[in-house]
Each structure stands twice: as structure tokens, then as C-alpha cells.
Sequence to fold (562 residues):
Amino acid sequence: MMNKRLIECVPNFSEGNNLSIIKQITDQIESVPGVRLLDVDPGKATNRTVVTFVGAPEEVIEAAFLAIRKACEVIDMRNHKGEHPRFGATDVCPLVPVSGVTMEEAVEFSRILAKRVGEELKIPVYCYEYAAFDEKRRNLANVRNGEYEGLPNKLKDPEWQPDFGPAEFVPRTGSIAIGARNFLVAYNVNLNTTSTRRANSIAFDIREAGRVLRQGDPVSGPVVKDATGEPVRIPGSLKKVKAIGWYIEEYGIAQISINLTDITTTPIHVAFEEVCKKAIERGMRVTGSELVGLVPLDAMLEAGKYFLKKQERSTGIPEKEIIKIAVKSLGLDDLKPFAPEEKIIEYMLASEEKHPLIDMDLAAFADETASESPAPGGGSISAYMGAMGAALGTMVANLSSHKRGWDDRWEEFSGWAEKGMYYVKALTKMVDEDTRSFNMVMDAFALPKENDDQKKIRKEAIQSATRYATEVPFKVMQLALETMDILESMATIGNPNSVSDAGVGALAARSAVLGAFLNVKINARDLTDRDFAEDLLKRAREVEALAIEKETRILEIVKSKI
Fold:
């Protein structure tokens, strides 16, 4: 799915309590073929629901329009109250490029949607962020200034005429902001206070816009203005961060509500740590935090590794363990359980992908291999042996990083463990890939061959699939060989109590190379492109020789220590 042209859409609807209304809106999204609804996150106190869905650009635009239209029908802004700023039934509707789509294209798609909403639904539409036609409309806070209650006057202001739709106040629906932006993380930090004012003081401390400078009393004193008459501001400590404080009756606490508009500039863990610091300075304490909507996997991994490094612990551990550290360190399960498979966007997208072998337990994998089916066969087993070899090297590195008396070397071994985890994941993926390549060959042989055209197509398909079925085990050979550098290092400098594990890892890696080579040979014999086949076999023989040489060297080191 990640190879397709994908856009994420994250509309915010001004209803967070009536689940029936929310369902009517999300049903519209799910009615569009090819669109996948990833997350629905209602908030009672904010009376707002953040919805996340993905799909091809044209499909996403259609789903977004249907959802906006339904929101106009089922949400009445005349009765709306909530903690979050808002000015419309569908308050904001940003498009976020995920894969195969540039920001420039996302802008064009968002303007197509905005034009359609304005013309067909007859509501005022403002384009914001990258889709803004005017620089002052880039910032959502400026576009939404005055909120719903200020719309009648705003729409009369020549400077704030909508980009699409009529410049008329629609009492039931309000207005809408449609735009294109980078991935934004909506993130709330929980405080041990009920004071909105105190929460706001921290929000002003950290947000990029900071606070207005006042003479005398910092709260009630007169505003200091510059030569142009604009208020002078004291900037906050974090770049690309928007924040406000509010009280959440649902939880009985105050929160800092944060928008991280560029997590490469200010990552989640940096924002969390800064709020913790400012809270302590003001006599408060952070009790946890929550993510609204979805978060990129890299952001969670970066946070987990940050906290592991603070503990001087290895970061070369399985991904799920890093995620667990991030969740506990950020207190993401403080208010409600945090399910990574439901909150991390890559996990949501990957849930459609099938991994028939990887997802099996060991007993089932062994039974499947022993069955009458020709796959999984030697290729998949070779890949798995390689993964186990890499896993053993990674284990030795992790044990070495925590060895008593080696505290000053934790970072050195953590680096080796991270390298090892890369090969564990890469070779594990090849377990299914080898069987998939075999099935591609079988599918090609099953193609019809009733006439010359069909025979030609079938022949080309067989050759293409066979070539791939030769390249896959060769890749396994290369990966398994590369793991032997880690195993040799761990046998040489790693925890001496685990040196035998490094030796077993070397045996497994060598076996993976030699086993995969057998698959290269048996598939290469059927290739009509003999130049390609002979070149690949030559390179495979070189890899085989290096693996045998490395295995011998590693075992000599192991035997000298046991």
C-alpha cells in the first residue's frame, strides 16, 4: 500500500458527544471505494472529533466532500459549545501527502476540494497552510480568529472574504478551513492541576508565538506595542509549536493542548520534556499525555530511543519494546489505554498487508514447512536461519551493553545492537518474500497458452518471475554475510559469557548463505538470459567463499575462549 499515491485527510468535526452523528459522517467516508478510515477520536470536553483516513487523492477528495456535506446536515453550530477553538461544522479539513504525492500536488487537490465545497454546499471556505492564497491566511489561528461567533462581522470585512463560496454567514454550518500541510501531531500533556490559567501560563512559555509583553503586571498590565502598533511578543521556547491551556471536565484535569506542526524541528519527546520542566518551575507536575489521532512510527521510535539513552540502555532492541518505553515514558496510557496498532499510522496501513509465514508461531511454521505444499521451502528456511543468526549477534550486543563493570561501553554495544536489529528485520521479511517469489513463478506457469500471443506473454512472465526468484535468495545471501561482521565483533569484544551464542550465530548465518545459494542455482538454470545468470552465480560464489572464511575465523575466536 505504501507504494501507491496516498493522501491522508484529517477533518475535525464540531461534534464529540453524539456518536450517532459522528457515525453518520464516517459512514460517508467509508462509502468511497479505496478509502480507508484509520481513526475516529471524539473528545467530550472539546465537543470535537478528529477523523483520519487515507487513499488515492481523487478518492480522498470525494470522501472528504461527502463527509463535509453530511456534517452540514447533522451538526448545528448554533448549539455548539466546546473547549477547542472552532468556526464551522467541519472546522478544518487538511490534506497531508503520505506517499507518491508532492506538497504542490496536495495543494492543488485541496483547492479542488475547497472550490467544490464552496460552489456546491454554498458555505464560506478559507484555504490555509500551504494552500493559502494570502500569507496571512497560512496560519490557521488567523483564519479562525473570532471563531464561529465572530463570523458575521468577519465575512463583512473586505480583507477576510472567503477564498471560495459566498461571503455570507451560514448560521447552521459556519465556515470551513481547507488546506494542505505536513504531518501534524495533535498532542495533549496532562497536569496535576485544574487551573486553566496555570495551564495557559505553561502553554505561553513553550509555544513559538510566546506571549504578549505587558508593562508592569505580566497578566493585566498594558500591552507594549512596537513602532507599527503591533504588540511586542516574548517568544516561547519551542519552534513549530502551537499551544493553549484548557480544563477537561471529562478527566477533571487541566491540559496543555499542543500542535506540533513540524516534528523534525520539535519532536514529541522534546515537547513533553519542556512541558515537564516548565511545570516544575511553576509548581506543577506532568502526570502523562495523550495523542489525538495518529502518529508516525518514527516519532514514537525516536521518543523511545531518547528515553532509553537517558537510562544508558541499548536502543538495539525490538521495535515493540522501543514503543513500549515511549508509551510509558510519555505517560500515553495515563487517561486511557494506548494501542500502538490503532495509533501509529504505519501500523494501521500495514494491517492490510499479509505475512503468512512471519505471523505464524514456531510450531505452525514448522508444520507448514513439513506439509505437502512445496512452499515454504529451503529459501524461506535459509532466510529464517539468517534472521536467527542476526538475532543471536544482537542478543550478545545487548547483554554486553548491560554487563556489570562495562557501564562506560553501553553506547558502543548499543550501536552494534541497532545494526543487528536491522538485519533481523530485513531477513525476517525475506522469509515471506522467498515464498512469494515462488508463488509468482507458479502463477506465471498457470497463465493461458492457447495462441501465440498468450504463449509470448506467458513466457515473458515466467522469465520475469524466475529472475526475481533468483534475486531474492541472492539478497538473502548478501544480508546473511553482512550479519557475520556483527557476529565476529561480538565474539571478539562482546560479553565473554555469551561467546558461544556468537558462534551459533555464525553457524546459522553461514548456513543461510549456503542454503540460499542452492536456491539461486536451481532458479538460475531456467533463465534464458545467460549473461545475467552467470554474473549472478559468479557473485554468489564469492559471497559463499567469504561466508565460509568468516565462519572459520569466528569459530576459531569462539573456541579460543571456551
Summary: The radius of gyration is 29 Å. The chain has three domains: 6-180, 185-350, 362-561. The CA atoms of residues 77 and 420 lie 55 Å apart. The mean pLDDT is 94.
